[in-house]
Amino acid sequence: MFIGPEEYKSCLRKLVAEEEALDIAVAFWGAGAYEYLYPDKTKPIRMICNLRTGGTNPVVIQQFLDQANRNNASMEIRQCDRLHAKVILGKHQALIGSANLSTNGLGIEVDDNETIERSALWLEAGIYTRDGDELTAMRNWFERLWQSKHVRLIGEEDIKDAKRAWERHRATRPDLSDPSNAPFSLATCDLSEIKDLPAYALLYRNELFSDEAKAALKAEQDSVDEQQGGQTKTSKLWAFEGWREFPKASVPVDFVSIYWRPRGGIRVDGVCRFLDLRNTFNYADDTKGYIDLAKPVQELLKRPFRKEDRKSMAELLNSCHCMSEIWEASDNDGEAGVIHLEDLARIVQRHMKKK
């Protein structure tokens, strides 16, 4: 039986609920797949994924691996670098289609440990069958694949490699939801699209910047200007004094700098990328200090983010009255904090719905 986009998800849900055991060969997996496919943690499942090419979220696969370690009898998981199939097979029924087990494929994601559904980005289609001959053919195919030289177990190094591949894939994929390349906005961004992308907000509560830090920044800026030989206009470096370690990735990370004034009011400084350059110095009392240097950029997640966009973001944050919640959700030390852009946007969008 042919099923279109409207029936795809309900058909999968029915199959998962009714079958006592599942064999799954689906290339790419995303957030929500574990909760969606495995509500019954005692159900026997064998699954094969494509982990190496960057389309599978390794965090999701780690969830399945952890379950396999807790209950080896019910969960088995392997990988295949050449897998591109999407087959979900039970004893009495099967689904073969175009959808990966991801947010874009099925429109599933997790919010505060709750699996929620939304409209999928892709229009999927497939074949649902209860035909005995077809099920036998699929079962034989799965067994051959499971035992083949192309399929192997997943180890710790595989997960590490998959994380690097996932970061590269997430950072370079095009934004299909908005071809106009409009400026980035916390109010309208798709949370599932920015999930796990290398973008954070840097929050700080005071503007104190020591004389020693100013001198260290000036020395670095003078060095950059001298290297350019005055032939081109050099951008001014940013410096962050005494901050803890910043999140890192194998691709450039965007950081939005946001000043939350002690008496209220918000200023968005802009976006920067760190240069992996820390300048150390001594304070007047001989204690050690340091600044981390960054280069300002005029884009955020490959979207324009200029002066007017900074102003719009500040106005939005001021109007939502949600900075206390954002601050609490951040990893902060009382003076400065870091929060992933998705977490920030989620709080903003939730407060917008209340208005």
Write the layout of secondary structure elements.
Blueprint: E1 2-3, H1 5-18, E2 22-26, H2 33-37, E3 45-49, H3 58-70, E4 75-80, E5 86-89, E6 94-97, H4 103-106, E7 108-111, E8 114-117, E9 126-129, H5 132-147, E10 151-152, H6 156-172, H7 191-194, E11 199-204, H8 211-228, E12 238-241, E13 254-260, E14 266-282, E15 288-297, E16 299-300, E17 303-304, H9 307-320, H10 323-329, E18 331-332, E19 336-340, H11 341-354
Parallel strand pairs: 2-3, 3-4, 11-13
Antiparallel strand pairs: 1-9, 2-5, 4-10, 5-6, 6-9, 7-8, 11-19, 12-15, 13-14, 14-15, 16-17, 18-19
Strand order of the largest sheet: 1-9-6-5-2-3-4-10
Please bin the fraction of helical residues: 25-40%
Q: How large is the count of helical segments? A: 11
Overall number of structural domains: 2
Structural class: alpha+beta
Strand runs, count: 19
CATH architecture of the largest domain: 2-Layer Sandwich
**Major sheet, described briefly?**
8 strands, mixed
- H-E order: EHEHEHEEEHEEEHEHHEHEEEEEEHHEEH
**Which term fits the overall shape?**
elongated
Distance between the termini: 45 Å
The first-level CATH class of the largest domain is given as Alpha Beta
Please state the average pLDDT score.
85
- The Rg value, from CA coordinates, equals 24 Å
What would CATH call the homologous superfamily of the largest domain? Endonuclease Chain A
List low-confidence stretches. 109-120
**β-strand amount:** 25-35%
Question: And the CATH topology of the largest domain?
Answer: Endonuclease, Chain A
